[in-house]
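ingest -> fold -> write
write: protein_1
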Amino acid sequence: MDVLNKKDLQKLREEHRFTLENLKKEKDIDLKDCHKLQKYAKVLYEQGKYKDAEELLFRLKEILVNEQNNNSDLMLQVFWGLLACQILNGKGRDVVENTTLKKMKDLINQRYNDEKITEFQFIQMNTWLVHWILVYSFTNKDVQNTSLFATVLQS
């Protein structure tokens, strides 16, 4: 996708046109392409290329920001990958909490409240969030990370 080069990306961001709707009109990029990008990011992740995967997932998150209600499954997959990459790349607590964790928690709660996932799936996803926070706790040098647990455990 030529839209991912830094020059085009910066221009689209500055003009507030880095959305799926605009990319569909201007570059003929649709939801299928977003699914392909997510799968490619997963391949990068599985190859241990966490920084490349994180960059791709972050851009994909930006593209899909307005699609949260219509494509929450894809958004959640993007957030799971982004959370894992941020933790494995040693990002700081603020980045993990503010760019991914809170938004994931909100999306999971919204999906549960909208009855798009079962109670079991809701509990399972929250358990995975705790798992990733534990991974963060044991791999990050930031020992003041109790607020991440508070973010996950709040109702």
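write: protein_2
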Amino acid sequence: MLRIDQFKTENLKQVYRKSKAILIEVATNVLLHGGVLAGNFAYLALLTIFPFFIVAAALGGVFGNSDYGHEAVRAFLAAVPPSVASVMASPVAAAMTARTGPLLWLAVIVGLWTTGSLIEAIRAVIQRAYGTVGRRPFWHYRLGSMALIVLAVVASMLALSMQVILASAAELIVRSVNLPEAAASLVAFSQVFTFLVLLGMLYLLFGLLTPTAYRRANHPIWPGPMFISLWWMLSLAVLPGYLGTFADYDLTYGSLAGVMVSLIFFFLIGLAMVIGAELNAAIARAGGGVPPDTTQERRVKP
């Protein structure tokens, strides 16, 4: 029994030391370059929102769901703070209906290329965290990013269809039960579904953008997406209260206050992206990294 207790104590100490080293490494790297990378993410996120929904609306029409673009916009607006949603709603809706015919498909091509810049920014964050750089040509990565955007549109279409089915079933149950608590349960269900969709999309994104050698070494990918999803939901809950209580951006930025709040929200999400990537990379290094002869991406020398 004494040996078992000693073994457990040693294991706990080892886990504590490894966890402490991971947290210190993540905090150090985020403090060094997290702000710059998060700022770049915020700018590109604001820049690519409109092209993405143009692409989504056009592809939705191709797949026979002409209302998908508006459904996607509503789902996105439900996943951002109200102040951000109020700024984005009208311009995004106008952008999706501004073009038809050949001009629409020209906008889709430009939109795919523009939105690919955000994917490439996330790839750069992940590669920097792992200390690797890509060996493939630029166009190869950009085409991969464009394909990933199409995949994200299709996946979000499936998720929205599932949400409609589940929400209808939940609403039917609420009406049949006819209890005040049931309405709160319906709201909670909506939040949980939003969290699960975020987690699934982020896991797909990190799974595809993590350097190949680290994926083949079976290092965990889920910690980063899990942290980002939790951070996203926390920001969604806390930011509106903070802006309404402690900050009045109208006095500083005037009519641009809504845009600045949007940038702040995307900056927070970008910072979470950096932390998530650094967390995955630190866990991989603590788990032994990868053998030198298996790296497909070239390792950056410190």
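write: annotation protein_2
Strands lie at 132-133, 298-299.
Confidence is low (pLDDT under 50) at residues 293-302.
pipeline exit 0
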